[in-house]
Queue: 2 jobs
Job 1
Amino acid sequence: MKVARVSHQGAIRYGIVDDGELVVLAGDPMFAGFDTTGERLPLSDVALLAPVIPRSKVVCVGKNYHDHAAEMGGEAPEAPLLFLKPNTAVIGPDDVIVRPPQSERTDYEGELAVVIGRIAKNVPVERALEYVFGYTAAVDVTARDIQYADGQWTRGKGFDTFCPLGPVIETEFDAGAARVQTRLNGAVKQDAPLSDMIHSVADIVAYASAAFTLLPGDVILTGTPAGVGPFVAGDRLEVEITGIGTLRNTARDA
Ligand code: MG
């Protein structure tokens, strides 16, 4: 199922995308289940929002593809390299990424995002996927010059608007059979099978949950393949993941 969070006539609604329409749900399916209201809305009548607002955090994995680690000038670390983005960085489909004046180089990183559905602490790898609600696409927007200048990544990856998510959450998704592709103004910049990830979704959920409790609605960005690069004001970014859809955003200067 493709779960959408939308704005309709000034109200936030949740629904299931079905054949160009939204089957409206009674509440947030992560907490209220999949009861429907009986309404069907044409998708053209609603605006898609970020499909989830992380309860507490966006967990990210750095250098989770060998070819991206190589393009950054090093080896991939042996264990998942975790960092956090604040939930205030999240924006939705068609929202605008704002390039901060402190940075002269902002990069796109197209990534698969995992949406946690249950409280997860010390979850074993074999059961980790039971804690996943679904999957969506993300951009790990990065002020590369600030990331390097600060020596750690919080500010460079944490600016407002630096975590586009969407367009929907796919609850039935096989990462082993899908690809992630990033396009800049229509030109393909990143294109890789998700099976190229060094640490699998299950590995990452288990590893992160051994460090901190994951809450329903927390999001994990699983890393980016090779081909990262800069974008500027006026550019159009698209991250497409097979079976999920295409997340589209534009950029402007602050
Ligand atoms: Mg990244």
Job 2
Amino acid sequence: MQGLLNELRRTHFSKNVDINLKDQEVLIMGWVHEIRDLGGIIFILIRDKDGMLQVTAPSKEVTPEVLEALRSFRKESVVAVKGKVQESGRAPNGVEIIPSEVTILNPANQPLPMDPTEKVRAEIDTRLDSRFMDLRKQNVSSIFKIKSQMLHTVRNFFYENDFTEINTPKLVASATEGGTELFPITYFEKEAFLGQSPQLYKQIMMSSGMDRVFEIAQIFRAEEHDTLRHLNEAISIDMEASFLDDVDVMKILEDMIHKVLEDISTKCSKELEILEHDLKVQKTPFPVVKYDDAVDIVNSRDVEMEWGEDLSRAAEKALGESMEGFYFLTDWPSEIKPFYVMPNKDNPINSHAFDLMYKDLEISSGATRIHQYDLLVEKISEKGLNPDAFGSYLKAFEYGMPPHAGWGVGADRLTMVLTGSNNIRETVLFPRDRHRLTP
Ligand code: AMO
């Protein structure tokens, strides 16, 4: 049986065609990046997954059929080119191919919706409208290669540290982080919501005896924010572990971040170079700033902040200016943290909650959790929520819930740090923000 491509198969990616293949025949497949027809000679750059290769067709050395086919090439059409490898001082990789057979696998319509060669810079909205083409640019695809490596490292890190990967529902009946930021949906005859965090489920899992769990999944937040750091659909890296407290899980978090920095700087050096991003591998332990001290730092920089307030954007910036790299913010007031956060035993107006910051960007929140049923019910009520709505969550606390702690890291925000992007939309293939629901 013959498939669509018949005998036509790629022998090499462009990055693997080098001088060692001199005089050999190769077949490459990719997109037409650039065409220069000088009459007596045609130069075509073919782009594929990780690079480009020059096809050089001097009219005296190739057949009229090949010349004619090359002349019908259009930018971004998908083509296959077979030819002999030849040394070339000027071409990328130091080699070019002299074509003996060319096939147009799928022509691209003209004009193109945007320029994928970086010669004309497009606004982010134009780029996102034609994201498939935007992703053909090396600097854009580099961001997603780095994100992929980061997720790979994170998974490995968890597996190596004896965590079990879990998948919790994203169609949920109640709020986790307070009632205001939920997307309501119709679930047959009931009202339901898109999950804003796996928080309640990862805590329930502590009562299952599985001890250490993690999840990497979408979270949905109906925030009206239109900022460079907020999305309405984001990826959260969540973990929860039993018989540990906030200090223990902060150590796990900084070790994971350190491993990510190390892996990206060694395994993605080419992508970092393309992005011109100088990524520092910060040593652990990361600095720790107590909330009380953060308030003083912010005020000393002429930004007003009262004790008990969450950090405003101006406060985050002021703090970020005085700190380098990653640092923890600890000892948060209980009042501004969610109901499940453990208050400090001796001084309950403070809590065992922490954030991990990178300069002025919040990367993660975490805490020791309340594991005592009565205290949890009290805190739910104190926050103005109805404990009855949390029945199936609370049940897990009645029959042997161990002490536990955990955190959630914004994977897209972490990718901003790793790639030097200042807009979170750059780090998501198809971002969902206040105004964008397509593509
Ligand atoms: P929190 O709400 O702080 O904590 O979220 C954790 C991390 O997720 C990222 N994040 C976002 N990223 C982009 N757009 C958003 N709208 C957005 N919202 C959050 C941030 C943030 O630090 N249940 C707790 C975690 C825990 O305690 O385990 C929680 O969801 O990087």
